[in-house]
Amino acid sequence: MTSNNTCSRSYNFKFCLDRHGIRQIRTAWADGPEFVTQCPIRPGMSYTYRFTIQGQEGTLWWHAHSSWLRATVYGALIIHPTEGSSYPFPMPKRETPILLGEWWDANPIDVVRQATRTGAAPNISDAYTINGQPGDLYNCSSQDTTIVPIDSGETHLLRVINAALNQPLFLKVANHRFTVVGADASYLKPFTTSVIVLGPGQTTDVLITGDQPPSRYYMAGTAYASAPNAPFDNTTTTAILEYKSAPCPAKNGLSIKPVMPSLPAFNDTATVTAFTKKFRSPRKVEVPTEIDESLFFTVGLGLNNCPKNFNSNQCQGPNGTRFTASMNNVSFVLPSNFSLLQAHHQGIPGVFTTDFPANPPLKFDYTGNVSRSLWQPVPGTKVYKLKYGSRVQIVLQDTSIFTPENHPIHIHGYDFYIVAEGFGNFNPKTDTSKFNLVDPPLRNTVGVPVGGWAVIRFVADNPGVWLMHCHLDVHITWGLATAFLVENGVGELEALEAPPLDLPPC
Fold this sequence. Notes:
- The protein is mainly beta and 506 residues long.
- The chain has 4 helices and 29 strands.
- The chain is globular, with a radius of gyration of 22 Å.
- The two termini are 30 Å apart.
């Protein structure tokens, strides 16, 4: 399947578009993150993304990958089975994308600019949305609440996408259960649950059956906020699962109030853990067992001391500091004159270095009381180089620098197997026994547990420069990212394609 998507300028902003989770085999020029694989599209210009979807099936999505434009520029990207084949589960009667979003009563670019200017945390959102509508529980939007139709006895496939900028979200439907069948465009061993949770960037395919008395039932989304004492949007977005045979709400003045589900507490990490532990691939998979690159990346927040030439209004973080974030104590800085991929392909010096550390520069008690001397990372545009075909393992370790938090870590251009997750500091002597090397789930975004760790594995078989970042946009704004430079292999089929003629100039 080949797709051409044209990305154009909107609202006077320079613009880039990412098809989140598409492997982009040899077509890194079509990946989308600004200043990584392309420079932004200039006013009045356009760029056509050309790529071929290979071996992927299920629910992905597309979104702006420029500053915080993702807040309102996103949509579902659904890859159906090839003609003549079908789903590995009973064919549903109907399908509906469910896009969970986050809304500010302000221009989101102004929100992030203010945070960048002050060094403080950005203002929290004013609402969450389901398919663009906040729902009945907000004063402004009850007339436009999203309706999801269902009928008695029929099965409905919901393709759930968390497009929120900064918030993992729980989702429940009153009196109904989900059967989870896929995530991030990969099928799973089906399992049932009353609640699902998605970090920003993640997708989950679920079946829901009309097995309750015909009526109206709320579908409700609310925050999973794992960082202790951090402010968050504590509102609830709703849609309505409505049976077609239910009495008409407006008939004869009858008003049927939908049934509301009981939602988890905002900090219910136990429910999140129980949910993610159920994820399994449908059958035995080929997980890399011999490892060429064993990497250990710490992820988390930090605080920069106020620069001497800044005034107090520019240092409104805790105790007169500025918020930052990092991997392995490096706070990632995007280039501004060339994209990383162009600099790599054209051999342009001075844009990036290849000395991103394979391990933290200093070992410490990552989830304990961290010395304040470790709170300030080093800014840099550092990438990690991988040989084509190398077998990679990454331990992603959350830290309690400033605060522990669940971090949804996404790698562009790759799917990976999540072979284990746990809490506390990863211990290679004891935790390797927990690795699932038989049927781990294949994902493109992993939620690193709050105060814990996750281990992923993949084969570096896609040449190019690929961003790896936290999908909480405030964290990538602060530098919680790095990139992999995957070298060409042997021959044309293992090499990056030439850049397209209409690639945006820098």
